[in-house]
Amino acid sequence: MTADEQKKQVGDAAAEYVKDGMKVGLGTGSTAAWFVKALAEKVKAGMKLTLVSTSIQTTQLAESLGLVIKDINDVGVLDLCVDGADEVGPGLALIKGGGAALLREKLIWEQAKSCIVIADAAKNVPLLGKFPLPIEVEPFAWKGTVNRISDVLVDFDINMMPKVRMKGESHWITDGGNLIFDVACGAIHEPAGLAHELKSLTGVVDHGLFLDLADIALIGGEDGVTVLH
Ligand code: 5RP
Question: Which residues does the entry assign to the active site, renumbered to this chain (predicted)?
Answer without folding.
Answer: 105 (proton acceptor)
